[in-house]
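This part of the workshop introduces the protein records we will be handling. A record pairs a protein's sequence with a compact description of its fold. Comparing a sequence with its tokens is the quickest way to learn the format. The record below serves as our worked example for the rest of this section:
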Amino acid sequence: MADETKNVFVSHVHEDDPGLGKLKGLLKANGMTIRDFSINSDNPNRAKSDEYIKSEILAPRIQHCATLVVYVSPETKDSDYVNWEIEYAHSKDRRIVGVWADGEKGCELPKALTKYHDAVVGWTGNRIIDAINGKIDGCENPDGSKPSPRQINRYCCH
């Protein structure tokens, strides 16, 4: 498979920064390189104003990408920034893909992700790539299975 490169903004909480390297490695091993436009410990943001961060730092980065990938962990759902990034990406007609964190068994998704996702997929390289490329829509459990009605009501997509 020829390697393809995509401009992607990975929405996440900073506690999950180590998972970004794993995500990039998983995608690379399956034939996709991403240019990650998000703010992380390798690319820190030192601004203090929330409005400035959103309008002058995050918004232009999201606009430069075709896809917003949300790295889903238990901490993600409570992040105001993650929810704002999802809502902003939706307002700009960007593809929104949730990816369950490596080893995640199921947790609540950010409210904006349940509302605006195109896909939510498990930790499988080819599935993530297909979701980014628009070949997969809908929601799946972290293990790749289809959610039961109870799981949908508990933590997944409505």
Summary: Residues 16 and 131 are 21 Å apart (CA to CA). DSSP finds six helices and six strands in the chain. The chain has a mean pLDDT of 88.
